[in-house]
Amino acid sequence: MADKIKETTEHIFDPAISKAERYAKGALIRKETPLESHKEWRSFKNRKDPVDILIETSVGRVENLLPIRYSRMMESPFTFYRGAAAIMAADLVHTPISGINLQLCGDCHLMNFGGFATPERKLVFDINDFDETFPGPWEWDVKRLAASFVVAGRWRKFSNKICKELAWHVVDSYKRHMQEYSKLSALQIWYADIDLAELIDLGHDKEIKEFHQKRIKKAAEYTAHEKEFAKMTYQDGDRARIKDDPPLIFHPAESEGRQILKDAEIVHKRYIESLSDDKQILLSRYSLNDVAVKVVGVGSVGTVCGISLLMSATGEPIFLQFKEARKSVLEPYVKTQSKYHHQGERIVMGQKLMQSASDLFLGWTNDDKNRFFYIRQLRDAKVKPVLEIMKPKNMADYAKACGWALSRAHARSGDPSIISGYIGDTNKFAEAVSEFSVLYADQNEQDYHKMLEAIKQGRLPIATEI
Question: Are residues 103 and 246 in the same domain?
Fold first, then answer.
């Protein structure tokens, strides 16, 4: 199966072929790779030790932050899954592949979706993490997303039946909305977004709807930079500085800190140059005031991430978040060579291709140590999923929303007619991927316990307190 992906032909959108012909082309591919085959998952001979993969993906990370990474991953099979994109990428290449390629999220799990404000100040629901984005087989995103619901459902102590149904809802929603996108023009697809308020109104739980409506109202009123400024800074003479909150937010030691701030000024200048002229003019009204390291996420822990505080001459703040951009975990397993040498540019361009609207200040940069970064606003009216309060019905609604958002993102770079033709009108694909998701959740638990054993053996360091 590993060789199969190298032999597939990428099905690029061809405007000279009618929608009906492209749909028929997708149906023909179904004969080569039957829908039922997607239920397959079994560990294979010479499967790489998942702990070895974790160790490999930690090379080049900030060493004293690695204990935080592994501590977060050991909390549950669910947090392990969030940090195990590289493990799953190595597995997915051994699963059936249709040969239909498009831009992938690459780390498509349910916590990488949520609400945020567009530059026009509209609240939308979309994918919000693209560190691993890369062109590849569309099924990989669908399978990682569906399996994440089974893993999360087990973490919430839902029954096996409900967990499998959650995965089914992801794929069924993906199918139904992809069919809708296949009837639209390319421009209509490009204009499409998912209104967060309307999405919440579709829910069935009155209590949860009211909870999220309050969150939306608060997010819409949220002047992020001013509120963050009040919470996250203190006055040091005539200069505002970011408060330390170790080990998650901190300034390096004094001499190192001065050098980092000096390096940051160079990196910031290069970042400004990656932006369009209008954004350059806007940010020319601000100067770099302070920089601090900020530990984020699960999979990103140990990469060089942080926040920078920009101030205008009249005292208005902007907080930007910078994240180190490493090679996508998908890159070793796909035929497509990256068109971007700069990994920050890869992430930014993938995000712009997949998202309905991207952050106003999204850009890329690099330092003199050959490290790549991308930059965006620290927070902008973000509404994150709160899994802890979700009942099975709420989680099912959320699964449908994520499947919808993924289909919209895939329809932008792929051919929705070919994908719809391949999936067809039956439930076979949803049933197959939901079966795969249960099997892969079992695999994830086995890998999680291998990590715990490696921690006991001292192969992986953990933090004493976080």
Answer: no
Q: What domain range is 49 assigned to? A: 4-220+384-456
All residues at 6 or more sequence positions from 414 whose CB lies less than 8 Å from its CB, including other chains: 11, 13, 100, 101, 102, 103, 138
Q: Does 426 map to a domain? A: yes
Tens of pLDDT, residue by residue over 290-299, are: 898 888 766 6
- The verdict on 228 and 201 lying in the same domain is no
176: left (phi over 0), alpha (psi -120 to 50) or beta: alpha
pTM equals 0.91
Are residues 21 and 72 both part of a single domain?
yes
Q: Count of domains in the chain? A: 2
DSSP secondary structure of 379-437: -SS-B---GGG--HHHHHHHHHHHHHHHHHHHHHHS-HHHHHHHH-SSSHHHHHHHHHH
Name 377's Cβ contacts closer than 8 Å, sequence gap at least 6. 224, 318, 319, 320, 321, 359, 360, 361
Largest CA distance in the chain: 71
Convert the pLDDT of each residue in 127-147 to its tens digit: 999 999 999 999 999 999 999
